[in-house]
Structure formats: structure tokens, C-alpha cells
Amino acid sequence: MNVKSNIKKILFYTLTQRRNFIPILSIYFLTLNNTTATQIGIFTAIGYIASFLLEIPSGYISDNIGHKKTLIIAKIAMLLSTFFYIIANEFYIYTLGTIFQSISLALVSGTKESFMHETLTDLNREKDYSKIMGKIGANASIFSAILALLLPFLTKIDLILPIKIYLIVDIIGLIIATTLITPLSTEKITKENKIKIKTIIKKSYNIGLLPIAIFTGAIIGFATSLPPFRTPYLEELGLPLIYMGVSMALSRVIWFLVGNKIKLIEKIKLKNLMKFEIIFFPIMFILMSIFNNPYVVLTISAISVGYMWGRSSIFTGHILENHIFDKKYKASILSIKSQIEKIFNIIIAVVIGIIMNYSYKLGHLSAGIILFSILIPTYFFIKKK
After folding, report:
1. How many degrees, rounded to 5, is the angle at CA 301 between CA 222 and CA 289?
2. Contact (CB, 8 A) for 278 and 160
């Protein structure tokens, strides 16, 4: 088969990696005895720690053993994660599910992007990276929206039925991963051209990767650490369980719309886009703490998360164009960015989790203020450089 088939296969692989049942998972966890919102933050943080410890090594391993093999291993880890969620009846088993999920995400992080960049290089379309990856994420998100809308109906039958369905989805994803075609442009690592991890990190920082990674990492870190608390928050505000999947579905629809307009967004200079985001994301978190109407909070949450993921390929494309000093180590370099995200994930999951245990409103307000205080100095540092 032609390497072009990788584009569609990565689309379906991406779809099988989505965890649309996470809102239900948080509610189910809180139905167990002696469980609290703080514990959600703890097992989430443990997963992020596992992902953090593996992030750069996983990218390095991926570059050395091959991106296709890594995507297969990642899918196996995700399948195991789903299995542990299904049998979970206490905190420790939930934690195992989170750890294997984080291992899978760490392995995919940087690997999928590198694999697709090499695929597009084979097709002489590497300049279309942001557009194509934006559409892949967008199209996968619309399928996710459908699955998210089915959540309340499936949970009426069994609260963890959506998770059981995803066990089948993960098996399909594993099959898809085995059929991927390794691009010819993939540069193999030999003993003669092998570079140590320390050297990769040092060179990446020297060419300016750190500040842009902190900027994007802070936004992603906050945006992905808060959703586990958002479901119980919406429930506290009075949102019926049947509408819990709507928040995720709506965010996926927005992701779809933004992802399909990447070319339009790319016309905005990166520094102007960053100026907008310095204001946009903190305000969205603060607004979520102000309103008491669960439908308004749900909509604000969906807009912020959908926009963030929809435009993410722009920043990844920027890094691939400006911060890759060695094409053999794309996944390793992108993993450095992802590890910075995990640092924020770990800190936010614990700190904001403690605040959330007292007040969900205060937690979202604190998130907005802290994020703004991080983005402002980071932006001016990037501008100065």
C-alpha cells in the first residue's frame, strides 16, 4: 500500500486514543467509599508523574526503535489502562489505569507527529503539516463528540459501559497501528550518528525551545488538569448527569471547526496569536468561577478546550520548522516540550486539587490568575529573544 494511507490510518488511530469516558470515570470514582476530589487530583498527578518520567526517554526510545513500533506499544499500554479502569474498585487500581494511560500518551507524544511529518515529507507535503494534522485532530474530534453524546445513554445501562466499549476500540486501534507503513524519509539511527539524551536537551534549549515550550505547556497543563474536577463541579451546580457528555461533545465540535480553519489562523503572526491567548485562557478559567449557571460554565469550558486543541498543530508545526536541529530526533525534541507540559500537569493537579476540595469556584479562579502570571513574563522573554 502507498504511504499516503498513513494519513487516514493515523486519523483512526488518533480516534482510538481519545478517552471520552473520563467525565464518567470521575463520577464513578466519587461513588466509592472514602473518596474525595483531592484524591482525583492525586491519582491524576501520579499518572502525570509516570508520563513525566517517561516523556523524554520515550521520545528517545521511539527515535531509536522506530516510530511505528512505538505507536504499537503505546496502543498496548492504552488497552491495559482501559482494562484496569474496568476492573477498578479502589484507589490503587484506578491509579494503575492512570499510569498505563500516561505511559501510552507519553509514547505517542512526539512519535505520532514525527511519523506524520516523515509521511508528508515522502509525499512532498511537509509544508502542509499544520493543515493536515489540524484536520486529523478536527475530524477525530467530531467522532469523539458523537461518542461523548452517547455517554449518558450508555451509563443508564451501566455506569462503566462506555469504558467497556473502549476496550474494543483499543483493540481496533492496535490492529490499525500494525498496518502503518514506515516512510522512506525516516532517518535511521546508527552507532556512528547516535546522540545522547543530555546532548539533545542541551541543544534544544540553546536553539530557543524552552520558552515556547513553557508557553504552550502552561496552557495545556492547566487545560488538561482541570477537566477531572469539572464534572463534579457541573454536578454541584445542578447539571443533570445526562448532559455530562455534552461538554466534551461541544468541545470536540469547536475543535472540529477550529482544526478545519488552521490555514486561516496561520495567517495571524505567532506573536499576535500568543498575545490573544495570554488574555483568552485566563479569562475563560475566571469566568467559569463567576457563573453559577452550569450550562454557561459548560459552554465556556467547551470553547476553551476545543480552541486549545484545535490550534495546537500550529505550535507543533512551528517547533518542527524552527527547533529541530537533527531530523533523526524529532520525537525526542518534541518530547521535551511535552515533558514541560507534564511538569505543569503534576503541579496543577495537586495544588488546584487541594483548592478544589474546598471550592470548585476558587480552584478555577486560582487557575486563571496563576496561568496569567506565568504567560505574561514568558511572552516578554520570547519577544526579547
Report:
1. 80
2. no
DSSP one-letter string for 183-233: -TTPPPP-TTT---HHHHHHHHHHTTHHHHHHHHHHHHHHHHHSHHHHHHH
Domains and CATH numbers, the chain: 5-180+194-384 (1.20.1250.20)
Look up residue 280 and give its amino acid. F
Q: Does pLDDT of 340 surpass 70?
A: yes
Distance CA 255, CA 283 (A): 19
Q: Which residue stretches of the chain are H helix?
A: 5-17, 22-30, 37-65, 67-87, 91-108, 111-122, 129-157, 161-178, 197-206, 209-225, 227-237, 244-259, 262-266, 270-290, 294-310, 312-322, 330-358, 360-384
State the Cα–Cα distance between residues 223 and 285, nearest whole angstrom.
9
How far apart CA 79 and CA 174 sit, in angstroms, is 8
pTM of the model as a whole: 0.77
d(CA 304, CA 315): 16
Could you tell me the CA-to-CA distances from 262 to 7, 117, 177, 366 in Å, in that order?
A: 17, 17, 26, 31
Task: Please state, in angstroms and rounded to a whole number, the distance separating the CA atoms of residues 174 and 191.
Answer: 31
For residue 139, pLDDT over 90 is answered with: no
